[in-house]
Amino acid sequence: xxxxxxxxxxxxxxxxxxxxxxxxxxxAAYPITPQTTIVEEFAGFVAKGRVHTEYVxxxxxxxxxxxxxxxxxxxxxxxxxxxSQGLALMWEELHVASGMRLPIVMANxxxxxxxxxxxHCDHGDAMGARDAGWVMLFAExxxxxxxxxxxxxxxxxxxxxxxxxxxxxxxxxxxHSIDRVDVLDDExxxxxxxxxxxxxxxxxxxxPVTHGAFAGLGGPFFEFKxxxxxxxxxxxxxxxxxxxxxxxxxxxxxxxVESWGMExxxxxxxxxxxxxxxxxxxxxxxxxxxxxxxxxKVRVFRPFPYAELAAALSGVKAVAVLDRAESFGAEGxxxxxxxxxxxxxxxxxVPVAGYIYGLGGSDVRLELIExxxxxxxxxxxxxxxxxxxxxxxxx
Amino acid sequence: xxxxKELTHREDRLEGGHRLCAGCGASIAVxxxxxxxxxxxVVVGCATGCLxxxxxxxxxxxxxxxxxxxxxxxxxxxxxxxxxxxxxLKAAGKIPADKRxxxxxxxxxxxxxxxxxxxxxxxxxxxxxxVYVCYDNGAYMNTGIQRSSATPKGAWATTAQIGSxxxxxxxxxxxxxxxxxxxxxxxxxxASISHWKDLTAKAEKAFAVEGPAFLNVFxxxxxxxxxxxxKTVEIAKLAVQTGFWPLYEVEDGVFRQTVKVHxxxxxEEFLKPQGRFKHLFKPENAELLAEIQGDVDRAYGAxxxxxxxx
Lengths: 395, 310
Fold this sequence. Notes:
By secondary structure, chain A is α/β, with parallel strands linked by helices.
């Protein structure tokens, strides 16, 4: 295990520190609440000469990702950070980054999308980009945000993957709260992530290559997309092995899904991000009262860990999925749709209830979680059915 | 400054066999600009548009130099990222400190005057060591001749049509070269493919400066302008001779007209050979034609004033 230092810091501060430790050659970023302290912190490293990074203070998020694409194609290790409207403005470029197979690492401070304008947490921004071809990691805590950033670098740059990775942390809840975090020493991180060995770098003047060619005339566009799908599928194994290696280095466990109480659970909640802590707290209390409550936290959303999720939920009598994002007109939120699909091939049909919660930072009170477990107990007992759309705690 | 003989010995970095139209002004602009880079290695970026789609049809490429296309509005931001990577990799010791590479971004007027203006402005303001080249053919030619903010007043375009209520584009064109000069960057110039010596000399200067440089190159589109494919250069020359497209440069803020116009010709001589202006010569449009002449005279006079002479 590496030397570690325990610090009290915000999620954004340790994400910025993880980026510093990964030694990017280029950072191109634009400020947006609640991501700002990441780019400010990093600007401090630049000013103090603590990084060799060329820091491009672009004029928009669209240009941030455009510059990241250029820099990554050039052969540099590239990082950025954004949130909400910024991620939405990047949307076009997210697809270019993954389509050009560029291993860019981006932190996303999850925040609601306008309108109405709101600066607080939900997952609508990231979920809106879930089909953009990025590997997507979600953090429950500042510690996980730190760890995910370092792992993201290794996952993205693995020659079998070469895909961009989005590392999400909950706006304000995780980005701005001061938390206890164990931080690895610089040398261990540098050794863990290694040097980036780019392929077909634009700056290899002696072997000129064309990036971003036109594949539109009955051309191989379709095959390029399948190659991208294959890379995303290969990333499952890479995520798993990088996670295992990182666990050994840090002493902290990592799973695409992380379960608590699922060995004998009757009722289970599936959730993403910081709310997992609230759910675990309630489950622990309910266990003391004799309710066999469990929780499954999804830490990797793309590629979606459907096999691990189905395995974790096997044997339960009722499942609830908490979505901090809408998918208007769909049967449930994005996570609900994935979870129910993952359970389709299960031997026994488990009732799955969907809840939309916490949009735009709407409070996630413990009694709301208790209500979900109570609903699940009724469904498990056969005295109730999943109740269609539930906006948890909406007035 | 290179002589014609020297220029003829320089390698073309845009290889023939691409699928641009016969008489396309864009490929002439690119070849002349890249001649100005001399023997130095060049990385080329390009906005979505005719130039990009016609030169990089996978698995083929006409570019004998590293090339990147990203999207429509971000050629400047993309190349600024490439240039930043060059600096970052030097700082990391992964590229020798004395290595020299030139960076150039191309975009049409749609990708530059309109959708790419913010990206261009940002890249120039940040001071990247790069040249941005707009090949101005005055409309969205790749999507089918839609008007842009570079389209001249009175021109027909598929989104500025001729009818009882309207005679082509109603607004004056935006003066992008002046906007770029207002950025206070080391080098800005307006050039035309009809004046190769002037253009290659400006390209040489643009590549030579440390920091950002901007070239606005007049590059007729026979298809969009409704002119024969063998009239590209002739029409471009008329744009200069009528004062519609004056050739000048702004070096560290100092304006200089690089090709003087003696006996400025009436704007009609530039407009008349082009099908896109045909309607202007109907008797009922005489007033509009006079208005266009007035616009050209005013802009030309103002420019000469900035050049501090005449």
